[in-house]
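Annex B. Sample input.
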Amino acid sequence: MLSISVEEFLFWKKKQLLKGGDQQSFAILLDCIGGISTGDQNLLNINKEGNLYLKKNLDFLESVWDDHLLKSHPIQYLCGIAFWRDLKLKVSNNVLIPRPESELIIDIVFNIFGKKSKKLFFAELGTGSGAISIALALAYPSWVGIATDIDQDVLEIATENYINSSGQSNLRFYCGHWWTPLERFKGKLDLAISNPPYIPQDTYEELPKEVKNFEPKIALLGGKDGLKHIKEIIQKAPLFLKEKGWLILENHFDQGEKVKQLLLKNKFTSIKIVNDLSGIGRFTIGRYK
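Annex B, continued. Sample output.
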């Protein structure tokens, strides 16, 4: 561990932030590579006396920060960690960085089922880092869940995240394309959730370079209109959901009405478009018959 005065550290931190970037990204760098938790970082601004201890020296931390700024390399990939709700998740460039807006999926589930619920069976299609399924498994210890992904390497990261986040055993991970790993569970799901690739082709081409150049294309691109995967998920959902089972989908900001029509066409009821914190129709939910 390397010792440095708090005063010197705060001067260096100010210098780095003047180069650009945001406080949240810098906090991730200091937590994951520097070894200073977010809580401890906040305390430094109150008590500027004494020394603190770093896992890596300032030159190394600065080199990582410069890589982030100059190449638009996401700090989560450089650190190998992303924070989501109260989870600290391992990520790699094979895994989509979990977004803050997706956290609202958990609140949607709370609104449907309450924060305490009898035992239910849920599945998440395309789990990525495992964030959503892990959060649900922790919130509902009596539930049983299955999280799927088409990439075995990604599933290994999600499994590791679950083991690191929980001492429970109510979540399993299966590899395969959307519903394919769930063939034996037809008609048994109380809830299915997916945040599938939904970016239209034209929009994908215009994405910021920190997204387009680094995050996995397979987790972003949803075909020409962005609805390729959403259509498949909705069309097959009635085979796997119980009657009165719920489907929750995240979609592009302008796809809500189209997704709603797809749900109606496939005999879903109680359909609702749910806004994110920016007032954008980010989620579409429905109940099967």
